[in-house]
């Protein structure tokens, strides 16, 4: 069951899930619909988007879908326009897995820019737009989905890790400002999670000792932690975060790189 503290009076009546068709985003959609939230779901592929929308409508809530690429600047206006007549009390920005895992000098700047737009530019624009509307109402919640990758840099994830680090630091600073306006802000830090995107990328989830999260558990834990910002690390990953705070950065990067070579296929 969904945590009952996630109620529509505080965070409703509409929740917008950017990246709400699959994986953790779809789990958020199911749990919020069960709790009575109307939903706006955004993703690129129309198929999974419509499937998730149809599945959550069984809870009797209204669901709007928008097939948009959030790396495109125009997506922000399309999205805010589609929400102009509704009160979005909860913004969950979930889309953001690394879409361009190239070594920096081997990749093109356009490709890296897409990672930055998906993880920095668009979430900032949506947080700014919907945050102001939440401030007028004196209530609301904003969840930015982050990653353990935001605690260090590794080859082929230098831009992704940097963008995730940005999200976490932004969430921390904004958290206190937003709190004064009645808005809860949470950076939800995920470790390896069994999502369709990771299955398609061929991640080796069977590595000994690897903590692997399940989307339903992650969404449930994230919603329960919404009022306990600015940062919540998904349980089981606390030691990794502590380890990544070391001042011996070379040892950390080298060691993590060896692990990443086993986890992520070279062509991803
Ligand atoms: N899975 C993991 O192991 C893991 C680990 C740490 C952190 N995370 C974080 O968890 C979040 C979810 O990751 P994920 O593994 O589920 O993969 P993802 O590729 O971020 O997909 C999640 C959702 O976002 C949508 N999406 C992705 N790119 C989009 C774009 N350019 N425009 C619009 N929608 C887009 C996807 O649908 P479409 O593909 O149809 O657009 C899907 O609904 C990300 O922020 C990621 O950084 C994941």
Give the number of helices. Answer: 10
Largest beta-sheet details: 7 strands, parallel
Strand content: 15-25%
Mean pLDDT across every amino acid position: 95
CATH topology: Rossmann fold
Which percent range fits the helix content? 40-55%
How many distinct domains? 1
Strand order of the largest sheet: 3-2-1-4-5-6-7
Structural class: alpha/beta
Give the strand tally.
7
Task: Please give the oligomerization state of what you see.
Answer: single chain
The low-confidence parts are none
Order of helices and strands: HEHEHEHEHEHEHHEHH
Distinct small molecules? NADP nicotinamide-adenine-dinucleotide phosphate
CATH architecture verdict: 3-Layer(aba) Sandwich
Radius of gyration: 18 Å
Short description:
By secondary structure, the protein is an alpha/beta fold.
Overview of the molecule:
- The structure is a single chain.
- The chain is α/β, with parallel strands linked by helices.
- The protein has one domain (8-263): Rossmann fold.
- Helices cover 47% and strands 15% of the residues.
- The protein has ten helices and seven strands.
- The chain has helices at residues 8-11, 23-34, 46-56, 74-82, 109-137, 158-180, 196-201, 215-224, 238-243, 249-263; strands at 14-18, 38-43, 63-67, 88-93, 140-147, 183-190, 231-233.
- The chain has a seven-stranded parallel sheet with strand order 3-2-1-4-5-6-7, sandwiched between helices.
- Helix 6 (158-180) links the parallel strand 5 (140-147) and strand 6.
- Helix 2 runs parallel beside helix 3, helix 2 (23-34) crosses helix 8 and helix 5 packs parallel to helix 6.
- The longest helix has 29 residues, at 109-137.
- The model has no long low-confidence stretch (mean pLDDT 95).
- The structure holds NADP nicotinamide-adenine-dinucleotide phosphate.
